Amino acid sequence: MDYLLNGFIRAFGLLFGGDPETFSAIWTTVVVSTLSIAACLGAGIPLGFLLGHNDFCGKKALRTVVDTLLSFPTVVIGLVVYAFLSNRGPLGDLELLFTIPGIAIGQFMLGMPIVVAMTANAVESQDRRLKPTLITLGASKRQMLTATILETRYSLMLAAVAAYGRIVSEVGISMMVGGNIKWHTRTITTAIALETGKGEFDTGIALGMVLLAVAFAVNIGVSMLKRRAGQ
Asked: What are the distances in angstroms from CA 112 to CA 67, 73, 164, 197?
C-alpha cells in the first residue's frame, strides 16, 4: 500500500508542480483531440443528416457499414493510417507520419462513424409529424433544416461528447501513427503506457488522473444530454 500511496503523492506533486514533461503530454492530447473532433463534427454531422433524412438505394447497406465501423479496433485503424502515411504509402510525400496532424487523421477515422451513426439515429427518431407540419406551414428547405437541427441539438451534442470520449482515450492510433515522441507526439495514453513500463509509476498515475477526470466529465456530459434529448 505504501507503493500506491507514494505514487499518488508524487503524482499530485507532478501535476500541481507544473512538471513540463507531464504537461507536454496533456497539451499534445488537447491539440490532437481538438483537431480530430472538429473534423469529425464538420464532416460527420452533414453526412449523418443526409443518411438519416433521405431514403435512397443502398441505405441499409451503408448504415450497416457505418455501424460496423463503430467497433473497428483502434490498432487496425492505426495500421491503415500508418500504411497510407509511410514513405512507401500513397500519402508519404505529405510527411504526416509521426506528426500531430497524422495522429488527428487517425483519430478522425475513429470518431467519424460515431458522429455519423448518432446523427443519423437522431434524425430518424425525431417526431415524424415535424416534416409534414413544416411542409403544411410552407417552410422552405433551409427552414426545415434549421428546425431539424434545433429538434436534434441535444442528440448532436451527445454525439460530439461520445466521439470525444472515444478519441481522447485511445492509445493504438497515437502509438503507431505518432510514434510516442517525447515533447512532440507523446499523448496522455501513450505516456501512461511508456512511463508505467519504465517503472515511473508516479507519472503514470498523474496522467491517469487527468484522463480519469476527462472520462468523468464526458460521462457527466453524456448523462445530462441524454436527459435533455429524452425530454
From this structure: 11, 14, 10, 31
